[in-house]
Amino acid sequence: MLNCNDFFASRAYLLPTSLLFYICTHFTSQIRLVNGKGRCSGRVEIYYNGQWGTVCDDSWDIKDAEVVCRQLDCGGTNQVRSSGQYGPGSGTIWLDDVACTGSERHLTECPHRGFGIHNCHHSEDAGVVCPGKRVRLVDGKGLCSGRVEIYYSGQWGTVCDDDWDMNDAAVVCGQLGCGSAVGAPLGAHFGQGSEPTWLDDVKCSGSESYLSECSHRGFGVEDCKHGEDAGVFCLSEIRLVNGTSHCCGVEILYKVYQTGYCRTVCNDVWDLNDAPVVCRQLGCGRADIAPERAYFGQGSGPIWQDDVGCSGSECSITQCPHTGGGTHNCCHSNDAGVICSGKGVSFPCLYMSCIRIWFELCI
Which residues form the SRCR domain (predicted)? Predict the structure, then answer.
């Protein structure tokens, strides 16, 4: 009689000749990631024998994580986590000493001690960070602006601009490590892509880690043409220049990653609700004055924001309502400025969208 090992389930058959034989069929368990940001990061858990259980981090490495990410359709591996970094699980520890080659389709195909055989505690529960569906910005200036494309089912495709807005753009910028979103241009602003169009009617809250976590019609379900390809401008740096110090008497300039030029903000409706956000963002204390009309000289290059309408509580100027993306009715004689106290550095709202911006302070 054939004994099936832990990787397999067996079924017995009785032939008319009274010979009993077994067929071993490959077992593939359900898998999930728990306590992470979205479904593509967290503590690894598998469903076996009617209950969820964890995986021990003994010998846990990037090859094991690759298999988990692939099985969940969450892209390639970004990072592995060990020592219960996503919190200890409960119940059975199902796997220990997992030793994947990285090519397996399912975690249970990898060598391991056997289901439920281990010498671990839940403080050793393994974790994974997957990148989610891959995303890139194409035909812009640098890595942080361009037409949005995602990699799915073996090929790159575009995103339709139906319902595309700054919340969606913010998720893309965050996923790429490009800081905050400053524009969500529509109508194939960066030129038309080619088939397929992967996403349509994307609706992000802005807090998602990956674009694929946002609500949408479904991959490949769309009614768009490439004249509707969505785009993104991300802000990688903010700096204040032309003043007597980095916190006062300055003009606001945005520098988009790797473009080599800076962009100004128009002073239409610019006031002391807007200026405190800039001072807070730069760690320059409170805002004393919000000077207008290029008080510290005219900038050059594009005017990037107009009609900025902050409440004063935002962490980043890009979180405030504005026309964005270079839409304005201003001249550089209307460039906005800020004078900060330079004291009392504080960040009352330290969440990720605050601290992802890279600063360049010009003294």
Answer: 31-131, 135-235, 238-341
